[in-house]
Amino acid sequence: MNRICNLFGIQYPIIAGGMVWCSGWRLASAVSNAGGLGLIGSGSMHPETLREHIRKCKAATDKPFGVNIPLMYPEIDSIINIVIEEGVKIVFTSAGNPKTWTSRLHDNGIKVAHVIASSRFALKCEEAGVDAIVAEGFEAGGHNGKEETTTMCLIPAVHKVTDKPLLAAGGISSGQGLLAAIALGADGVQMGTRFALTVESSASEEFKKLCIGLNEGDTQLTLKQVSPTRMIKNELYQRIVEAELNGAKVDELREILGKGRAKKGIFEGDLKDGELEIGQVASSIREIQTAGEAVEQIMKEYYSVRERLKL
Q1: pLDDT digits 0-9 by tens, 188-197
Q2: 81: helix, coil or strand?
Q3: I want to staple 277 with a disulfide (CB 3.0 to 4.6 A). Which of 8, 142, 206, 291 is the partner?
Q4: In order of start, what are the domains of the chain with their CATH numbers?
Q5: What share of the chain is helix, strand, coil (3-state, %, to 5)?
């Protein structure tokens, strides 16, 4: 049996990324009901909002689901306590040291996966004792690794240094991508962009419609001095680029970015002044499906290509 499916108790080795402003209980439960693993994105939620989403997700699915927790979250203690109190069994952590919380989560019967962008940090995951590793290439939307390593290069590198169950992320939205990731040493995939652009995603309709019309090169990794972030080239992006070309310091860039830009862009649909985070692979997505339809199509593509290649 596939190691990721066995670890999380799911049918298909497909995880929907826990994305801010996209991954609420509706998306998480829909992906889980379709045979993958849905994640609730806690990074855009107040603690009690997360509790509400966990309870609604439990009511909407009897299948496994998890919570994504960015470890830099300002109210991390409250988030961890809520996850434990509500009996969540799977947590994906990111943006921080996996050693900090993995032992406590394990003590409460929770499986832990951690997101990294280099083989060096994969070794830190080994030391922390996580159950699985997500290796995310810089094709991914939103916050990214400073190394700018592509998924095709990253997965073999991480596979060399760890025998932990491995998920590939960044630039993957299809069954062909799933098969390629497995060929490179992954056990499954985490997809963000594909599920951000589904019916159940809580992203605004304006944002979704913009994304399914993107072409190659319409996203760019920027804000490298602050926190490397892939976003759509809109007016906010242009202001950031101009400031960087004029030698803006970190504080100046943070002032331009301001607060709540991702919410403004992704959730509220401000396509000019919002921070429009999405992955490169958006240019290959041309329709807004339900999450169930997306999972079904991905697996059909996977089996079709595997049969064509006689694997």
Answers
A1: 999 999 999 9
A2: helix
A3: 142
A4: 10-203+286-308 (3.20.20.70), 205-281 (no CATH)
A5: 45, 15, 40
